[in-house]
Design brief:
Strand content: 15-25%
Shape: elongated
Oligomer: single chain
Distance between the termini: 56 Å
Strand order of the largest sheet: 2-1-3-4-5
Structural class: alpha+beta
Order of helices and strands: HHHHHHHEEHEHEE
Length: about 220
């Protein structure tokens, strides 16, 4: 049965307009993006199949063009729309961070980092530079590495911090393994960074370990 034949209250678009996007499932939201299905599958059925194929929305959003085009009914045009949607969300979260105190809107910081680096296939190290009032000055990807590690040089973090005249920083790196639990090496690096930044009177406010679905905070664990 086509979605057009469904009761109005069950159609994703009408449901969104009546109750808000937060009341829709992942598959229903994806179906609105897809707009149409393929022969034998409604847009919602197709969305559910895509969720099963990729495993999660995060994995779908991180798929490359070749992976995307292997799915029936999908091509370069739809991929471009999906990537544009992802980038709009990332930029909106970046604006939200810059307009507010980063410490008073920790969820925006988490969401931005998860969308930016959570599904990267190599480790990257990001620094968020802050004013004395914890407003965001800039965000930089300072180091990148391999599937399992990245070399972080505290002196370079200090140099970039001074270049931005930042009073505080939040640092983050991803775990491509999908396991967000900080390692002993992560804790040792955090201690080294904190000490190096203190020498130039800069606060290390948090260190996040990021995956596609989680963001573990050192500050919340009492490790800073």
């Amino acid at each position: 049965m086509s979605i057009c034949d469904w009761p109005a209250a069950e159609r994703p678009r009408e449901k969104l307009l009546a109750h808000g996007a937060e009341h829709l499932s992942d598959a229903e939201l994806l179906a609105i993006f897809l707009r149409t299905g393929i022969k034998g599958l409604s847009a919602v059925d197709m969305a559910r199949r895509l969720m099963n194929e990729f495993g999660s929305l995060s994995c779908l959003l991180s798929a490359d063009l070749a992976e995307f085009e292997r799915q029936p009914g999908l091509g370069a045009a739809k991929y471009a729309q999906l990537m544009a949607t992802k980038e709009l969300a990332r930029r909106a979260l970046a604006e939200e961070m810059k307009l507010a105190d980063a410490l008073s809107s920790p969820q925006a910081v988490r969401d931005f980092l998860r969308l930016s680096i959570g599904m990267r296939d190599v480790e990257v190290f990001v620094v968020i530079f802050l004013t004395a009032q914890n407003r965001v000055l800039a965000v930089e990807e300072v180091f990148s590495g391999t599937l399992s590690e990245t070399r972080v040089y505290p002196r370079e973090v200090v140099r970039r911090t001074l270049a931005h005249n930042a009073a505080g920083v939040i640092v983050a790196h991803n775990h491509p393994s999908g396991v967000a639990e900080p390692s002993s090496a992560d804790r040792a690096l955090t201690d080294t960074l904190k000490a190096a930044l203190q020498l130039v009177d800069v606060r290390l406010l948090d260190h996040f370990v990021i995956t596609g679905s989680h963001a573990e905070s050192f500050a919340e664990r009492g490790w800073l």
